[in-house]
Specification:
With 261 residues, the protein is of the alpha/beta class. It folds into 2 domains: 150 residues, Rossmann fold, CATH 3.40.50.1000; 91 residues. Helix content is 42%, strand content 10%. It is built from 10 helices and 8 strands. It has a 6-stranded parallel sheet with strand order 5-4-1-6-7-8, sandwiched between helices. Strand 6, helix 8 and strand 7 form a beta-alpha-beta unit. Helix 3 packs across helix 4 and helix 4 packs parallel to helix 6. The protein is globular, with a radius of gyration of 18 Å.
Amino acid sequence: MRKPENIAGVVYDVDDTLLNSQPDPGNPLSNLHQVSRLEALYKVAEELGGDYLSLLQVQAQENFDSFAASPVHTVSGAFFTLLKNRGLMTGDIDPHNPIIKRLVELKDDAYGKLLTVHGRPVLGADSFVRDFSHTFGLDDKNAIASTAILRDIKTFLRMHDLAPLFPDERIIDASRVTHPKPHPEAFDKAFQSLSLPEHARRSTIAFEDDPRGMLSARKAGLYICAITTRYSADFLASIEAKPDYIASSYAEFREFFGMSA
């Protein structure tokens, strides 16, 4: 697969692209987001009682599946999908629903605490970001397009000495988009934050792990590099937004882009 002749910029997703949110290797149910969502569900069950006590029966796999099945790549989408499947909600996803808002609030609080203890990079991701920026002269052309919240993104960046490459104006987090992935808004806004000409879109690299994020990047016209932290290479090669390049590690990305080990 050919890479762009001239790399103009780069946009990174965060969770499971840069941040390894799975403390137990090989066990996706240990994902920090999964654990904090489950904690939030149990707390809301205890707060509301009644029919919501059924949420105490939710196990890790059902919780995990609700995010994968959500039509949008958001925490509120995952909660809504689970509650709708259990007959506790109807209609369309409404992030302003007070129960959804309470679940998200509790989840964010739990996740923030877990992140400071367990938030480590995907193997080689932190050094790759720094070296990629230096190799291709991109120190002011790095951006983030994530559905995470700004607080958590900045915590992770500070923990691993990446913050200088990503000033706030080039971090597109959940609060800065109206339409979550797979809508192109997140990657489009990230691209625009780089102050590049329109013709540079296909020369701007988007690093992603999730098919919904890849579709967002594809609609924004970017060159997609996929990492197989959550989905197999065969699966990613079959999706609508087929990536331009698929790798299992940042060592493979280094080789593909002709960077030193």
